[in-house]
């Protein structure tokens, strides 16, 4: 029965009960015997009710205590117990379910004695305050309890001092939170967004089904301080999914408790599921670490019987055949849809909001013809629009709204601070198709993306230890030997190095030359796949109706199907190769070996894992390769900076040994040159991958309808006058001298590539930025120590050649071939490079 404000009040007379004739000591012994040690507060209808706590079970490892009799697969009672929202208090929940509905009111059952008279009520209330535990198992109930928003408090809050709510003097609060994984994921998103934007925890309770529950957790620390007599807070947390707990970012979730660390008189204990061996990371709390007044303990995760097919794709993509009549119908429906969507989005605009400025397009087609007629490089178009219309420019492609952002402040506000709305992808159709919407850098924001992102973070974090840093140093020395021995082949040496670092650390095998089949086949495929971003190569990216025409009429559709099948075959082939090498013991230690040997501990399908590792190959090889070629060009184009860099490295390292990772903290100029080189390439050629808006939004008076696609215009953002006032595309001093707004201390840490714009924004930022930075800084330091990079001399003019540096018009752009002359700085350094490489070969 729902509790109402008309619940029975205690009798007004002080002698309304004969029990009061007994001595106080006897009365308290009776209360102690009759009343439960713990009290559960739970929802019943529209109100809150109380029930006795009969204790928590200790059977979470196998659930055996929860089973009475019967076949586990068909025992509905046991299944309900296993899935109890009350966690280890499943028996408490079961007793509530078995009690007559009328007895669940706060004025019934064990609590009936409290309503005999006012004095008994106050005595029993004081006993419960000081000696009982308040149990809450639902976050929205917790919110009601802490904010005193229920009639429940009209009954239990009476005290001799009417100005003090007696609930404020409960000394022990237990939160048993068996939460949906979706809610935990939402909490992670909200907390990360708040942290990135330096705002206090907050959530719009109307956002979705999790709004109220999310708000309860986010505001827990701010709601508890008034409870001045609270001495113990115990939090038991699990999630309602048959997947491993290791996917949860514990540190982020528990960070909301940090304000409570000022309560030295409060003991906080947190009970969490065990982390599977090998999946521990910085996202997880350690039992042995001291976190203010927190105590961490681990237990087995609550068990479930849930059928779950992890191999089933979240969004299967099937081949489509379509008749001429269907095509006409689709075209008609599409035209109507464009009109309806346009009208609907206009009507949805909040009063006063307006559409952003932008170029007028063709009827129906919008700006698609202009984009499709480009050579694939949209940067000049975006820059031209930015100069005309400003930092926010809207255009359209067959009714689809798209926006170009040319301000870092605006991009950070939308992609980071409002990241929960702006973290979906607007990947071009051709690229989404060939990757089957399973590449984590490109795929939509869904559960498969979350699983792959967790795997990526786990894999990349493993490579940060000393063992993998030693592998990078070895690969750098091999590359230096090749560069000195065959300098004209510098392009292939940079390519081999980028692949060599990744294959050894991620996949467990070595590639000794750029002619290795793995490199040639993979690099060729990446080149082919990158063209899928280009509207001139794949017009279906901007003209959706072309996707349904026959392949003989639109040949690019046949290419897409071929590339998709080839990509999948290569992923399966690589998986088998690596797994075979692990089984027969020929593989060296790698992140894939760790994944394969602990496969049961990763909650991800083989298909998803394959595409996740494939994305590491694409990004982890192409980005360093492109950046290193850009570095060589910049050293030729800016010889003064090459001279400064060489003197800087010489001062720290000296002439008798090669730079190592131990030197990197003392080489801020190396890190500055690397960072500025990445900025330079992004200004010249980086397109980035679009974000897609998940719900209507308004910014600075502009209305953005749901599904608007957003492009970050890196070329403009990285030349912003406030951040880069010198307006130079290459100037490493900006990271080293206090006169620049980009300068940060200490120089043993800064500059670095953490949160650097070219690696993306928010949840869609590249997770491998630190892996890429480590790959670059060690080789750049060694090149500066050992080599001189110069422009070749034109034999006709006897002057250095003029190099017009150009890049491919794709995301993660590669420089087109250019000439470069590389020489050793001295015979002694050349000899030492070869000696060090030989030692690594023997080792």
UniProtKB/TrEMBL annotation:
Gene Ontology MF, one: monooxygenase activity
Region of interest: Disordered: 58-77
Keyword match Transport: no
Keyword flag Oxidoreductase: yes
InterPro entries: Cyt_P450, Cyt_P450_CS, Cyt_P450_E_grp-I, Cyt_P450_sf, Cytochrome_P450_fung
Keywords from the named record: Heme, Iron, Metal-binding, Monooxygenase, Oxidoreductase
Binding, heme: 766
Protein family (similarity comment): Belongs to the cytochrome P450 family.
Cofactor entry: heme
Coiled coil: none
Protein name: Cytochrome P450
SUPFAM superfamilies the UniProt entry points to: Cytochrome P450
